[in-house]
Amino acid sequence: MFFGERLIGIISPLLLLAVWEVFVRVGWISPQFFPAPSSIVEALIKLSRSGELWLNVSASLRRLVFGFVIGGVPALVLGIIMGLSRPIRLFIDPLIASTYPIPKSALLPLVLLIFGLGENSKIAMVAMGVFYPVIMNTVTGVLQIPKIYFDVGANFGASRWEIFRTVALPGAAPFIVTGIKLGIGMGLILIAIAEMVGADSGLGYMIWNAWQLMDVETMYVGLLVIAFLGFVFTLLLDELERWLLPWRKTI
Amino acid sequence: MSTKIALSNLSKSFPSRSAVITAIDNVSLDISSGTFCVIVGPSGCGKTTLLRIAAGLENKTSGEFSIVREDLRRPLNAMVFQGDSIFPWMSVWDNAAYGLKMRGVGSGEIREIVSHYLDRTGLLRFSEYFPHQLSGGMRQRVSIARAFANDPEVLLMDEPFSALDEQNKLILQEELLRIWEEHKKTVLFITHSVDEAVTLGDKIVVMTASPGRIKAVVDIDLPRPRNILELRRDPKFGKLVFQIWGYLRAEVDAARARAS
Ligand SMILES: Nc1ncnc2c1ncn2[C@@H]1O[C@H](COP(=O)(O)OP(=O)(O)OP(=O)(O)O)[C@@H](O)[C@H]1O
Ligand SMILES: [Mg+2]
């Protein structure tokens, strides 16, 4: 039963690829827009042999990691502080509520202006994308912790820092993990966009450059690799969640 | 014996949108050191509020409340909260060790104390379990172990057994009496059950329906150590239960009349 269901999940993409391949070969769809899967795989092999693919993947990953830390860590700390302190929450909430709706991609020109064309602008874009979902989920996470746990902390003599560490952080952790997942998705979107403008490496650059050279296969390789990265991140985070939150009954 | 907890003209009211709710009205009471004091009273009469003031989690509105401090190295109080209160994100062991860790007790000592109380509450085997893997009764025992392990001068227990079935309740009452006999701490214990009050207490404080005042204070001179089942055959036990029900009856009726 279990394997049967897994099999069904694999069948549909395979079927799509097969139909695609056949249609291109028969000449029903144009390889100019939809190159055959076999030629995309060929391009993938070629790009990885030449080292070009790894160069771009590692450039994007590096920016993602830096942006993630620079945006995520302050969001986490500030989010918990806001959750714990009503005055601070009331003070900062309007700032977040009013800047959150701005599409982060629309800020790219401003970010380029401020940080220049180099690495910093890419990292800043990712950081912004990660910041919002993490801080918002963290605040919600702290606020939903039943009050009794804070009373327990106070009754057993926990200091402010200990309340932070033993009550607020673990109590909000399930929400924080959700925020991180959303943040990484956002980071992937923004890194692709940021690398299309004024970059000379990265997956976004690779896709954009392929478009300019009308190298459609490479473009597809870029998309494929981004999708794959997203998939791997999701798996890693699920694993991290299991490891960090062994106390949740739902996983 | 010396006074351990002293309340004089203690009052507490909560401001609300329409009116001020008086939870506790002018309560005066002395509890001497080593007394197992049980508070009974109708629902909403301010029992939890009284305990929270004792724990320092709530401010009094007027009057005096004091616990005499005897040992500066020990915490003044530890509370067993009404309802589920152990941290879902900590193992049984870490929950029981919580107070000791917050006090910065050395890890060797923590290991010794925590294993002692987890053993006494029958939880040692479940040290690595998380709360969601335990029954309601087991979670309550963790909460009790956590409070005892912290070795406070005063133990505050807010209806610790009321969510349990009869068998578990009996077992835990026995365990509580056994652990209490070891140290004879001063205890403030809240319950709805008159049987439980007479079974456990040295002194029973009956409170009136809201606003909470003291209706009667009854000393329980049943011998210790007590055997819970044997106790029920003692005619004195029945008499005391009957007497306290008499006080309580009128208050429960009054509370219900007010509610309808
Ligand atoms: N934080 C609060 N804000 C406003 N009113 C409160 C608050 N806490 C308690 N009260 C009110 O004070 C009164 C006493 O409440 P308390 O919880 O002390 O009752 P209780 O005797 O413990 O009842 P129960 O036996 O049902 O647990 C109630 O009328 C309640 O509504
Ligand atoms: Mg109560």
3D architecture notes:
The complex is a heterodimer of chains A (251) and B (260). Chain A is mainly α. Chain A has a single domain (38-244), classed as Orthogonal Bundle (MetI-like fold). Chain A has helices spanning 2-26, 37-50, 52-84, 86-99, 108-115, 119-143, 147-155, 160-196, 203-212, 216-244. In chain A, helix 3 (52-84) packs across helix 9 (203-212) and helix 7 crosses helix 8. Chain A is globular, with a radius of gyration of 22 Å. The two termini of chain A are 21 Å apart. By secondary structure, chain B is an alpha/beta fold. Chain B has helices at 47-55, 92-96, 98-102, 107-120, 136-149, 166-183, 194-200, 228-231, 235-259; strands spanning 3-15, 20-32, 36-40, 62-67, 77-80, 154-158, 186-191, 203-207, 214-219. A 6-stranded mixed β-sheet of chain B has the order 5-6-7-3-8-9, with helices on both faces. Chain B has a 3-stranded antiparallel β-sheet with strand order 2-1-4, with helices on one face. Chain B is globular. Chain A binds chain B through residues 148-149, 151-159, 162, 166-167, 170-171, 173, 245-249, and chain B through 52, 55-57, 75, 77-79, 81, 83-85, 87-90, 98-99, 102-103, 130-132, 146, 150. Adenosine-5'-triphosphate (ATP) binds next to strand 2 and helix 1 of chain B. Adenosine-5'-triphosphate binds next to strand 2 and helix 1 of chain B.
SSE topology sketch:
The complex is a heterodimer of chains A (251) and B (260).
Chain A: H1 2-26, H2 37-50, H3 52-84, H4 86-99, H5 108-115, H6 119-143, H7 147-155, H8 160-196, H9 203-212, H10 216-244
Chain B: E1 3-15, E2 20-32, E3 36-40, H1 47-55, E4 62-67, E5 77-80, H2 92-96, H3 98-102, H4 107-120, H5 136-149, E6 154-158, H6 166-183, E7 186-191, H7 194-200, E8 203-207, E9 214-219, H8 228-231, H9 235-259
Parallel strand pairs in B: 3-7, 3-8, 5-6, 6-7
Antiparallel strand pairs in B: 1-2, 1-4, 8-9
Bound molecules: adenosine-5'-triphosphate and magnesium ion.
The site of magnesium ion (MG) has 4 residues of chain B, from helix 1.
